[in-house]
Design goal:
2 copies of one chain form a homodimer. Chain A is elongated, with a radius of gyration of 26 Å. The first copy, chain A, is built from 4 helices and 14 strands. Helices cover 20% and strands 42% of the residues of chain A. The first copy, chain A, has 2 domains: 111 residues, Distorted Sandwich (Protein Yojf, Chain: A), CATH 2.70.180.20; 105 residues, Trna Endonuclease, Chain: A, domain 1 (3-Layer(aba) Sandwich). With 240 residues, chain A is α+β, with helices and mostly antiparallel strands. In chain A, the strands form 2 sheets. In chain A, strands 1, 2, 3, 4, 5, 6, 7 and 8 form an 8-stranded antiparallel beta sheet that branches. In chain A, strands 10-11-12-13-14 form a 5-stranded mixed beta sheet, sandwiched between helices. The interface between A and B is large, with 65 and 64 residues. The structure holds a DNA duplex (15 and 15 nucleotides).
DNA sequence: GCCTAGGTCCCGTCT
DNA sequence: AGACGGGGCCTAGGC
């Protein structure tokens, strides 16, 4: 099913890639190339052997010798192929990104294949799962906590969980499924302030940050603002 | 130079990949596989044809049919290869990430190559370039602005540019080289508050957000807090 | 070592 | 369409 060329000429490789893309196949090119990105930010890749993947959604990624992220990429397309001066693959990534041009002086291997089925994924352990867990067992936040609404809207944005504590005090809960940083504290602070403005003037409002952990600076920020931290991890995570 | 196998058995592919990695080569495997990630977050990829890249830094990325990001990945290693039940590539990504296992029921193409030179990049148009531009022409921020220090430290973190406005008022400048969101406004707010606490009690402190543009909500946030927005783009960007 | 900030962030979701 | 927030974000730099 997959087709492969070894050491093709630029013309052959260009025709091969164009035909494969027209058939909805993924194209893998391995070879020596240079790349330039022109746009808001300018990036140039010196000559080196890399892997280019041209996916059926017209995403182009260029992977180098290290790292999870591609050395260069573009999506938004369309993708154009040219064989005038070596094989050149180009794609315009739109206004915010820029235009990518990859020029191969030698293609070692060109492969085209049908990426059938390569999409279905199942995920767990996200913030949504943490929310489900807290709604199922509100005492995890603190004993007596009662959720009343999720995504309750305020002028500062939607509150993850809105409810009352054991004393009946209005409480905003902000969820993070990873260790929380200062941004989470100020977001919670904005929600609490918005609730105080929204409710009648002398209303007491509490804020609780629910996350597996917080950074030291965030813990101080919370304390300074009279906010509470409650350690809860998403279900199924190893640290329980 | 690059070596290629077509439709190898699991044993052959495993030996091929192991040898290539030992030689510091990059390995590309194209074939039908399933993948599982176990850790804080659980992710499962159903059977599909994908590209696996095993890089010389022991990063493993698995690319599917769409998107810039890999469907699965691991780094931190070490990477292990096993041929007991189809070709299996595994890598432990550490505590926060999890362990990745990719099992191929069929390898269509296995390629190994030396990713020589695939590292050098030059970049421009970043926040650093915007800073250079502002330091070179401070009037871009506003007429009469005088930079005094960069990365000036405060309890809330380092201020991009610290200086005085035309009236001599202490001013904190926060730079963003892309359209700024609410996080930039609250970051600037934290810096201004920290400066007010640090300097003598009745000190006036201004805050200016310098970016090519801001979102509407951010513009309101800034106005509510008495902060200023000054539109400046990084040098060489298309919108000047 | 942890933590913070930047990114062509990407990507989903909602207005 | 733009906009906002989450992410196994990744990656570089600072302490």
């Amino acid at each position: 099913m997959p087709r492969t060329l070894t050491d093709p000429t630029a013309d052959r490789a260009a025709a091969f890639a164009t035909d494969a893309a027209a058939d909805g196949l993924t194209v893998s090119l391995i070879g020596s190339c240079v790349a330039t990105l022109t746009g808001r930010s300018q990036r140039d890749l010196a000559a080196g052997v890399r892997t280019l993947l041209w996916k059926p959604d017209d995403t182009v990624v260029v992977h180098g010798a290290s790292g999870r992220d591609p050395d260069a990429w573009a999506s938004g397309g369309p993708v154009t192929v040219d064989a005038a001066d070596g094989l050149t693959v180009a794609c315009d990534g739109g206004h915010t990104a820029g235009a990518l041009r990859v020029r191969f002086d030698a293609v070692h291997t060109a492969t085209a294949f049908d990426a059938a089925g390569a999409d279905a994924t199942t995920v767990s352990g996200t913030e949504a799962a943490l929310k489900d867990r807290v709604l199922d067992t509100p005492d995890l936040v603190e004993p007596g906590f009662q959720p009343l609404a999720t995504e309750r809207d305020t002028p500062a944005g939607p509150i993850d969980i809105y409810g009352r504590d054991a004393d009946g005090t209005v409480t905003a809960v902000e969820l993070k499924n990873v260790r929380a940083g200062p941004a989470a504290a100020s977001q919670l602070q904005r929600y609490v302030a918005a609730l105080r403005r929204t409710l009648h003037a002398d209303a007491t409002v509490r804020g609780i940050l629910v996350a597996p952990a917080v950074t030291a600076k965030t813990r101080r920020l919370l304390a300074d603002r009279g906010l509470t931290f409650s350690p809860v991890s998403p279900p199924g995570s190893r640290d329980r």
